[in-house]
Write a structure and sequence with these properties.
Strand content: 15-25%
Shape: globular
Strand order of the largest sheet: 6-3-7
Mean pLDDT: 84
Number of strands: 7
Number of helices: 1
Distance between the termini: 13 Å
Order of helices and strands: EEEEEEHE
Low-confidence stretches: none
Structural class: alpha+beta
Largest sheet: 3 strands, mixed
Radius of gyration: 14 Å
Length: 89
Amino acid sequence: MNAWFDPERGRRLSASIDLGLAVDTPTGLIVPVIRNAVALSGDALEAEIARLVEAARTRTLAPEALKGATLTLSNYGSIAGRHATPVVV
């Protein structure tokens, strides 16, 4: 799943999992990136999610924090969603 297809070079696997986390804000959806998420402990991951959610909601994220996700998570269930169309970037 953490790969993409390049028509010139074929399948390309990403060396790390840089996880985009969809955050709903009053001004719209913002997707900050958790860098190398697989290397974080559960507590460190929880702390990083809290930090990024707060920074997204206060609009204090640096532009670099919004680039380079290799995989993106969203939670449609929080709005009683049963079906959705994911966007592939």
